[in-house]
């Protein structure tokens, strides 16, 4: 582990509405074995006790600073935090997550040994009581400028498997050079309120001369159930938000020497985000017709949805808006955890009691979807009654254009 005389790491923590989690987050940062760390908590106009908790901690350790601002969103909070940072390196932690005691020392050791502009590691995901280690999809190692341009970037945003990135969008499983990253953070449009991490990660990656990709790091990402069903999303608003993100990314990469490859990747990333946010259902403006990305799904079917993650919630919400479909069941392996989060999810055992025409596997990772399909088959479900997301991109493109999306520019102007 690196010693106390090494470079300062600035850790920016945007804080909003996390009074139940922020203490654990701060405790984990103050417990870092790597002591050369400054912790910048940016209270983005929280209306709960988050700001008060931050101030209480600031009195205990001079490495911790609290900045209060009016609510302006994640991008503006990060801008304020990064502007105040003084470290050689820059890291990010979300206010409802936490890190292990060696996390920043681990990242610093890789940055220092490789003279890296960016370090990328794995993380642990916690959702509804389930924990899983997520490793980087790019091979571990140190990439020089040629490696960045020829090995990492051509697969960073879309690695050839739909819904998969070669380099994850997240900023919190990475360590940046602060002086360089600050320029990119300052350039991000503050009207981007979806995909904020991608707006920094991919343009910054494209600028790097050396990148270190390593194994699992002790970052614990808490994916909270966001109760999509309780507040059905305004899909039109979601489309505006996606347009803002992708227009920004396109602008950053236009004229870049590798832009054809990157711009092609952006299109597939865009398709993926549209499907996730819409619940894989594209409706015409007047609601008279719709297109669904799940094969074999037709009108008047009895449908079961399998998986209660955020995509599963979007799928259920979207299907329930359709007049000629009947959602007769919603299942998950961890149904009790889902129920504790307020989701009306049943156990997988109940599949034997349901009368249905098709079961939709609401997962965005095709490998995971196949594993779930085999699990259903082992319970006697006919494979012909299982549908895994298989989008027809030509049809999807045509449908988006009828909604008012210029898929080439990512501009969105909804049609009446």
Radius of gyration: 22 Å
Count of helix runs: 13
Number of domains: 3
The profile of the biggest β sheet is: 10 strands, mixed
**Class derived from helix and strand content:** alpha/beta
The proportion of residues in beta strands is: 15-25%
What is the CATH-assigned architecture of the largest domain? Alpha-Beta Complex
Describe what you observe in this structure.
The protein is of the alpha/beta class. It folds into 3 domains: 9-224, Spore Coat Polysaccharide Biosynthesis Protein SpsA, Chain A (Alpha-Beta Complex); 237-284 and 394-412, no CATH class; 290-390, Rossmann fold (3-Layer(aba) Sandwich). Helix content is 38%, strand content 21%. It contains 13 helices and 18 strands. β2, α2 (50-58) and β3 (64-69) form a beta-alpha-beta unit. α3 (74-84) packs antiparallel against α6 and α6 packs across α7 (196-207).
Tell me the layout of helices and strands.
Elements: E1 9-15, H1 22-30, E2 37-44, H2 50-58, E3 64-69, H3 74-84, E4 89-92, E5 98-99, H4 103-114, E6 118-127, E7 130-134, E8 141-143, H5 145-156, E9 174-177, H6 178-187, H7 196-207, E10 211-222, H8 235-253, H9 259-278, E11 281-283, E12 290-292, E13 302-306, H10 310-321, E14 326-331, H11 335-340, E15 358-361, H12 366-378, E16 386-388, H13 393-403, E17 405-406, E18 411-412
Parallel strand pairs: 1-2, 1-4, 2-3, 6-10, 13-14, 13-15, 15-16
Antiparallel strand pairs: 4-9, 5-10, 6-7, 6-9, 8-10, 11-12, 17-18
Helix pairs in contact: 3-6, 6-7, 7-8, 8-9
């Amino acid at each position: 582990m690196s010693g106390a005389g090494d470079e300062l790491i600035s850790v920016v923590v945007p804080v909003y509405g996390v009074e139940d989690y922020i203490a654990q987050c701060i405790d984990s940062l103050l417990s870092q074995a790597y002591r050369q760390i400054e912790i910048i908590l940016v209270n983005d106009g929280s209306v709960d006790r988050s700001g008060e908790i931050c101030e209480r901690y600031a009195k205990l350790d001079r490495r911790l600073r609290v900045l209060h601002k009016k609510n302006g969103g994640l991008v503006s909070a990060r801008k304020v935090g990064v502007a105040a940072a003084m470290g050689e390196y820059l890291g990010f932690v979300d206010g409802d997550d936490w890190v292990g005691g060696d996390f920043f020392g681990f990242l610093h050791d890789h940055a220092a040994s490789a003279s890296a502009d960016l370090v990328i590691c794995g993380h642990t995901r916690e959702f509804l009581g389930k924990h899983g280690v997520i490793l980087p999809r790019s091979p571990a190692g140190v990439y020089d400028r040629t490696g960045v341009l020829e090995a990492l970037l051509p697969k960073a945003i879309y690695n050839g498997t739909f819904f998969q990135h070669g380099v994850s969008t997240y900023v919190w499983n990475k360590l940046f050079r602060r002086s360089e990253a600050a320029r990119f953070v300052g350039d991000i449009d503050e009207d981007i309120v979806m995909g904020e991490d991608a707006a920094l990660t991919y343009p910054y990656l494209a600028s790097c001369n050396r990148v270190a990709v390593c194994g699992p790091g002790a970052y614990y990402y808490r994916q909270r159930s966001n109760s999509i069903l309780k507040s059905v999303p305004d899909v039109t608003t979601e489309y505006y938000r996606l347009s803002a993100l992708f227009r920004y990314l396109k602008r950053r990469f236009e004229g870049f020497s590798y832009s054809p490859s990157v711009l092609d990747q952006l299109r597939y990333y865009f398709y993926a985000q549209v499907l996730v946010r819409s619940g894989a259902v594209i409706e015409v403006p007047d609601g008279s017709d719709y297109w669904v990305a799940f094969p074999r799904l037709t009108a008047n079917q009895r449908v079961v949805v399998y998986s209660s993650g955020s995509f599963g919630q979007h799928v259920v919400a979207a299907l329930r808006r359709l007049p000629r479909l009947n959602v007769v069941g919603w299942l998950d392996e961890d149904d009790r955890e889902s129920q504790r989060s307020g989701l009306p999810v049943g156990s997988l055992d109940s599949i034997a009691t349901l009368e249905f025409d098709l079961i939709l596997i609401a997962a965005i990772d095709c490998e995971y979807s196949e594993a779930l399909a085999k699990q259903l088959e082992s319970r006697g479900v006919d494979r012909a009654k299982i549908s895994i997301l298989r989008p027809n991109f030509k049809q999807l493109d045509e449908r988006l254009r009828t909604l008012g999306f210029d898929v080439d520019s990512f501009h969105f102007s909804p049609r009446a």
